[in-house]
């Protein structure tokens, strides 16, 4: 195994960078959509229920089926991968945005309005900062989901460590089949742990001391 890693270190590093990039791009897009939608529907019961239910539908679709459906309109590679990862990321981000905004104490919001703040100002200056730790928790969950699903995206020639996993599985019995599969799998696991630690650090550093207490 060590010899395999030494000989293919450049390939492994490139696949890790591709994996991180496709996950990061997907999360940024999902955050823009998810947080934006959550801000629009958090205080509207019917739209809120419809949006959360719709986002939840994506998680019921097997990842291979989702990727297969995206091949005819979008082809292979990055595009279907990013679209699939965004769809799978929406539920935890939208749901946590809604929960975070709704958990802001009404008394605080009333006090802000009494000081002359408009509803929009209250949303951006009071609710969002207080909901931020909960929103980031949703993004953290979405990151873990997308890291695993991104590996399966190798099925549609997607970027990342899944290429090693699929290469190993498709060449079972050959000399390096197990090395390919194990390298891809271990890479995904380690990457998930590292990114989770990064999100813990981001949450601590971007949350005010009062909320952390």
Polypeptide structure, described:
The protein is an all-alpha fold and 213 residues long. 84% of the residues lie in helices and 0% in strands. It is built from ten helices and no strands. It has helices spanning 2-7, 9-41, 45-60, 63-74, 78-102, 106-114, 119-152, 162-170, 177-206, 209-212. The longest helix has 34 residues, at 119-152. The radius of gyration is 20 Å and the shape is elongated.
Quick take:
With 213 residues, the protein is mainly alpha-helical. 84% of the residues lie in helices and 0% in strands.
Essential attributes:
213 residues, mainly alpha
Average pLDDT confidence is 89
Oligomer: single chain
Uncertain ranges? none
Structural class call reads mainly alpha
Relative helix content: over 70%
Helix and strand string, N-terminal first? HHHHHHHHHH
Total beta strand runs: 0
Strand content: under 5%
- Straight-line N-to-C gap: 46 Å
Number of helices: 10
How big is the Rg?
Answer: 20 Å
Shape: elongated
For the largest beta-sheet, the strand count, sense and barrel status come to: none
């Amino acid at each position: 195994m060590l010899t395999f890693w030494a000989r293919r270190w450049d390939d492994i590093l490139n696949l890790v960078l591709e994996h991180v990039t496709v996950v990061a791009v997907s999360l940024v897009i999902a955050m823009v959509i998810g947080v934006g939608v959550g801000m629009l529907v958090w205080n509207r019961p019917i739209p809120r229920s419809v949006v959360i239910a719709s986002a939840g539908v994506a998680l019921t679709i097997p990842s291979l089926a989702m990727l297969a459906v995206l091949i005819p309109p979008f082809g292979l590679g990055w595009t279907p991968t990013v679209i699939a990862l965004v769809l799978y990321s929406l539920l935890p981000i939208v749901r946590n945005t809604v929960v975070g905004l709704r958990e802001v104490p009404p008394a605080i919001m009333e006090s802000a309005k009494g000081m002359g703040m408009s509803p929009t100002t209250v949303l951006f200056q009071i609710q969002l900062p207080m909901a931020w730790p909960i929103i980031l928790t949703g993004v953290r969950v979405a990151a873990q989901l997308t890291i695993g699903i991104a590996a399966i995206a190798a099925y549609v020639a997607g970027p990342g460590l899944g290429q090693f996993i699929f290469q190993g599985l498709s060449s079972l019995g050959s000399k390096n089949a197990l090395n390919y599969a194990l390298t891809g799998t271990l890479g995904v696991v380690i990457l998930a742990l590292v990114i989770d630690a990064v999100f813990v650090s981001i949450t601590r550093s971007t949350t005010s001391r009062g909320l952390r207490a």
